[in-house]
Each structure stands twice: as C-alpha cells, then as structure tokens.
Amino acid sequence: MGLTIGVGWLARDLKEDGGDIAELRKPYDMLNEVLSEAGMAPHHEPHDLPSDEVFEAEMWGYGGLHAIRRLAAYHVCEGRLPPQGSYEDYVSDPVIERLDQEHLRSLDRRNGGLLKRWMSARRSIPKFQHLLLHSDCEGFYLPYDFQHVVFDNAQPQRDGIGGMIGSSPRLLQECIELAALIELPKDIGVESEEIWKNADNPSAEGRLWQVYGVEAFGLVRLIRGCELSIKHSAALVFG
Q: Which domain of life does the UniProt lineage start with (predicted)?
C-alpha cells in the first residue's frame, strides 16, 4: 500500500467502467461543497480526456512525500540540504515540525481579528504551503492559482478530501524550486531507469539528485502531475 497520484481518473473511469456518473462524481461534488463554503467557484472536472494523457504514478510510499517535505523544511529553516535519511527521518524529523508550526502560526494570524490580520499582512507567508498543508494519502490539487490552501471546515470532515485542497500551479512552483535545489534534470522521465535505481539505492556521493534519489523520484512525479492538471484543467488527485 502507498500513495498513488493521478490526473484524469474520472474521465478514465467513465470510459472504462461506464458506471453511474452520479456515483463517480461524488468526491468532486464534495470538493465543490468545500469550495462553495470558501466563496470559490466550483471545479468542473473533465469527463473526456485522451487515454494517453491520463496520468497515474506511484510515489515512493507515503514516506517519499515526507522526504520532499523534509527537503523543503531544511531549505527554509536551516538554509541547507538535509542529511541523507531513512523512512523514520522522513516522517519524524523535527525540522519538518518547525516549518509546520510556522505555517500554523501564519494561519492563526490570517484567521484572527483585525490586529492579527494586520500583523499577518506585514509578515511574509512561509514557503511551500501547498506542499506541506495537504493530506499524504488523499485529496485534490486544483488547476487554478490561489494563494492559500483551502480547508474543509465541516465536522466531521468530508471523506476523500483530506481536510485541505491545494493549487496545482502553486505546488508546481514549489516542486520546481526544490528540483532545482537538487539539480534534477528537467528532461528526465517519470519512469526512467535512473530515477528508479537512485530511489532504491541513493548514492552516497555524486550528483545531488542521485544522492537525494527518493526526493527526485517524488518530485518528477509531482511536477508531471501538476503540468497535466494545468494542461487539462483537471484535478491532481491523491489516492
């Protein structure tokens, strides 16, 4: 079991299964409930997409996403690259918690009273909001550019939303910045042998993207997913 990401799943399922469209659309209807409560326009997920443009890719387990978040946290909080790590380092590194807390304080100021909002306007927003403030196992990134992550404020929260909705263009910008940090080649394939090899056995030395093989594996997938999400005005789905 692990995290799979994709674009065009609704169009694929409608074409392959020919099932009840109302049933297949339920997650997107709940998504639009959250958007409506946030004062945003609904998302219209495409029902038709060329088969070769439907995207599905496995991440390096759930830990692979946390490895990318750890890379971002060290960049922001420490101004350096993280030491090579294991799954335990990816999911429990205190530097990630530091950046998470910065985001939570920023949200508290933004959602507070007039004084807090004034203070928030005078402070910069912590970086990598859309990467960090999202479920690691479900949910959506939408093909629209909005500054702040959208929260599902329902109690209990809606199934399949993951509590937070992100922006594909914003996530793309964040991932491109991190890819540049580890010198990830722009033309490397999502399923290339090198990507798999270095994720499975990261180099102790050499090119940075080979040293940070797990991070590179996830970044190339997230970047491709965001690009297709924007291209087709479709959601990037975590599932």
A: Bacteria
What SS3 string covers 4-47?
Answer: EEEECHHHHHHHHHCCCHHHHCHHHHHHHHHHHHCCCCCCCCCC
17 burial level (CB within 10 Å; 0-12, 13-18, 19+): exposed
Output the DSSP codes for 174-187. Answer: HHHHHHHHTT--TT
Q: List helix spans (H) across the chain.
A: 9-17, 21-24, 26-37, 61-77, 87-92, 94-111, 114-122, 129-132, 168-181, 193-200, 208-211, 213-232
pLDDT tens digits for the chain (239 residues)? 689 999 999 999 999 877 688 899 999 999 999 999 999 999 999 999 999 999 999 999 999 999 999 999 999 999 999 999 999 999 999 999 999 999 989 888 877 644 444 444 445 689 999 999 999 999 999 999 999 999 999 999 999 999 999 999 999 999 999 999 999 999 999 999 999 999 999 999 999 999 999 999 999 999 999 999 999 999 999 99
Cα within 13 Å of Cα(77), Cβ side: 19
